[in-house]
Design a protein that fits this description.
Blueprint (H helix, E strand, L loop, with lengths): L5 H35 L11 E11 L7 E2 L29 H5 L10 E3 L4 E11 L1 H12 L2 E7 L2 E6 L1 E4 L12 E4 L2 E9 L2 E9 L5 E2 L7 E13 L26 H33 L7 H4 L17 H26 L10 H12 L1 H14 L5 H10 L2 H17 L8 H28 L27 H27 L1
Length: 508
């Protein structure tokens, strides 16, 4: 028998190992390429028949509190497809996808799902997976259903919503009773509209005739999760107008809609009240000017009374000019940011339908308008004779972000403790901090230097007294500071109360 050479044995072993590694690595590489394809896929892709269409899952949460959201797979849903005839490579659920800055801030946590759809191929019924859920998993699902949880998915970046389950015969006061039943909806029906090879509508339905009773969670239960797909031609929408159908979406209750008529009514009311007040003041000032023209200049001080006695203190510099000027500069910066955002939204540069685009635009605009805030603050501070301009610029740069960060730290800590998607990811937080450190603060410094060098001394239109007039403290109750604050704020508050109710109702 011929003896094999050792070199041949080593070569054969190396070839076997390489083949094994290739076989093991090929599925992993294919899966990685598939994830990369999903992340880089452009919206509005023109599909050909039998192209793979991926369902992206996002989050779940209580319907009555849309800001309280959690990862989709915080509930025991299917992560793997049970069928063998699905498109290869098999896509598992739970793989996190890339997010834009605004998406991360708004609490989106997009992940892959095992649902396999192919373009224009209807599916009457297909098993997704069959899971035996234990007591803990069933309790999670039951609690979610009792809290009226909804889920959010995406197909070609089109959002879809649906309920996890439903409760029957629940008592309004007592809640769950012996006769009440809790049902889970394990079957989802996707209805997708196409126009010229592009997906223009996407809706998901739950079917009440395909439900599982999970009222009793003391025993493990096998549940079959399934789905079906229906494709149809949608001629009413094209790709450019496909987001317009969400303007009339009725998934959210009508009370969450903004009542524009009420807002306009209150706005007109405020304008009318301001106009009436202006007319009264103009009449008083006109009478005063007419009277002052008829008397000597030496007797003017003797004739003054009431609110005109403080004319010598109106233009007196504040006790803390650094904070005063920083507040003015920050206010101007926020005003410019708001006006720019509204302008960009009106001309279509900023999309109001893309998730998180408005928040992203606000952060970017705030950073780049920091030069305006720094300029106004330093300019005003220099005109007031301030010398600690470095302190003024630092206060201007942090007057708005620092309190905002303190509130964020508290809210984000609570969200992290409850594992909510409202908690900001570490990478997103570092990106925002980097934008403030390397864009906002340097621009504030540059604006402050320019404003300080281009400013001049402030010249008041009236003479300011050397000694501040003493404010009387022994006054009747109806002239006290708390009462005057209450009366002064009651009218504006009554005008905006309804709008505040609708605004808070839409976000809470």
């Amino acid at each position: 028998m011929r003896r094999r050479h050792p070199t041949s044995l080593v070569a054969a072993a190396a070839l076997s190992v390489a083949s094994a590694l290739f076989i093991l690595a090929s599925p992993a590489e294919a899966y990685t390429e598939l994830i990369k394809k999903i992340n880089t896929k452009k919206i509005g892709h023109v599909h050909t028949p039998h192209d793979g269409v991926h369902v992206i899952v996002n989050k779940v949460g209580p319907f009555n509190n849309p800001t309280e959201t959690y990862r989709y797979y915080s509930l025991p849903f299917c992560r793997k497809h049970a069928a063998d005839e699905v498109v290869k490579p098999v896509l598992h659920g739970g793989h996190r996808l890339k997010h834009k800055l605004g998406e991360s801030i708004t609490g989106n946590r997009k992940e892959t799902s095992p649902y396999e759809l192919t373009f224009n191929d209807n599916i009457h019924w297909r098993l997704l997976c069959e899971e035996e859920l234990g007591t803990e998993e069933l309790t999670k699902l039951k609690d979610a259903i009792h809290n009226n949880y909804f889920f959010e998915m995406f197909v070609d970046d089109l959002p879809m919503w649906g309920y996890i389950g439903e409760i029957f015969d629940e008592d309004v006061i007592l809640g769950e009773t012996e006769s009440s039943r809790t049902f889970l909806y394990p079957h989802l029906h996707f209805k997708i509209g196409v126009n010229e090879g592009q997906i223009v509508t996407a809706t998901v339905f739950t079917q009440s005739n395909r439900r599982e009773d999970i009222t009793d969670v003391s025993k493990p239960k096998k549940i079959k999760f399934s789905y079906s797909v229906e494709w149809y031609t949608e001629e009413d929408f094209n790709h450019a107008s496909r987001m317009s159908r969400y303007q009339d979406n009725r998934f959210l209750p009508s009370s969450f809609e903004v009542h524009w008529l009420s807002i306009i009514n209150s706005f007109v009311l405020v304008l009318l009240l301001t106009a009436f007040l202006t007319i009264v003041l103009l009449r008083v000032l006109k009478n005063d000017f007419s009277r002052y023209m008829e008397i000597d200049e030496e007797t003017i001080d003797e004739e003054e009374n009431g609110w005109k006695l403080i004319r010598g203190d109106v233009f007196r510099f504040p006790q803390y000019p650094e904070f005063f000027c920083a507040a003015i500069g920050t206010g101007v910066q926020l005003t410019v940011t708001t006006l720019l955002l509204l302008t960009l939204a009106l001309i279509g540069t900023v999309s109001t339908t893309k998730r998180g685009s408005i928040l992203t635009s606000v952060i970017v605009l705030y950073c780049f308008t920091s030069i305006i805030g720094g300029y106004w603050s330093a300019s005003l501070y220099r005109s007031m004779g301030g010398t600690r301009w470095v302190h003024n610029i630092i206060i201007t740069a942090g007057l708005f972000p620092v309190p905002l960060f303190a509130i964020f730290a508290w809210v984000n800590s609570i969200a992290l403790a409850h594992k909510s998607t409202a908690a900001l990811p570490v990478l997103t937080f570092l990106v925002i901090v980097a934008m403030f450190t390397f864009i906002s603060f340097p621009l504030t410094l540059i604006g402050g230097i320019v404003g300080r060098n281009r400013s001049s001394d402030f010249k008041a239109p009236t003479r300011t007294t050397k000694v501040a007039r003493e404010i009387p403290t022994d006054v009747p109750w109806f002239r006290s500071t708390p009462f005057l604050m209450l009366i002064a704020g009651f009218l504006p508050f009554s005008a905006i109360y309804i709008e505040l109710h609708y605004i808070f109702a839409s976000i809470w």
